Amino acid sequence: MLLPARFRYIVVEGPMGAGKTSLAQRLASRLSAELVLEAPDENPFLPRFYEEPTRHALATQLFFLFQRIQQLRDLKQIDLFAGTTVSDFLFDKDALFARLNLADDELHLYQQIYNQLAPQAPVPDLVIYLQASHRQLFERVRRRNIAYERNIDERYLGMLADEYQRFFYQFDAAPLLIVNSDRLNFVDDEADFDLLLQRIGEMKGPRAFFSRGD
């Protein structure tokens, strides 16, 4: 199934464990699209952050901020948006982690830098926001067994999921499809994936919701 031509830049978002990278990869493959993924393994501060969050939060956050804007700058320079591009991160959500993890004085510094960079980020034609229960997120993170994520507890994931929910409740910068992924498997279930594509194709307004049983 082909998607409407207006969806040239699609972003999949959601907290850790929601399945955003897997879905972005599947979409890019089906649509023969350019794929742009976050690269957390390239952030040297991330493992240290999970061991000592207070000490390493600012360095971790600023590394991600500059990394993400550079990825999007590269896309604009080589005009990949002439085709279809799928990404697993929304630049706007970077500040979400900053508010959750930074002290007030650090957040003030971060916000000044963010405000300088944000206008350079392109606006998506569609954002797919994957939701899941706190327990489901925690179990998925545990199953993938990434070394630096082993110190993440369910409480932090729950706070992160709640922050995502607040962020997207107010989000109006692009069309938004909210997907409850608790009972959907877009990687292994072809029917679930095809149904998602159908829902994207049927979008008329700025916001829609999709879950199993709709």
Please render the helix and strand layout as text:
Elements: E1 9-13, H1 20-31, E2 34-36, H2 46-51, H3 53-77, E3 85-87, H4 94-101, H5 104-117, E4 126-131, H6 134-144, H7 154-170, E5 176-180, H8 190-201, E6 207-210
Parallel strand pairs: 1-3, 1-4, 2-3, 4-5, 5-6
Helix pairs in contact: 3-4, 3-5, 6-7
Structure class? alpha/beta
Low-confidence stretches: none
User: What's the CATH H-level homologous superfamily?
Assistant: P-loop containing nucleotide triphosphate hydrolases
Total count of domains:
1
Per CATH, the class reads Alpha Beta
User: What is the strand arrangement across the widest sheet?
Assistant: 2-3-1-4-5-6
Helix content: 40-55%
User: What value does the Rg take, in angstroms?
Assistant: 17 Å
Shape: globular
CATH domain fold name: Rossmann fold
Q: Note the run of SSEs as H and E.
A: EHEHHEHHEHHEHE
Number of helices: 8
Please tally the β strands and state the result: 6
Mean pLDDT: 89
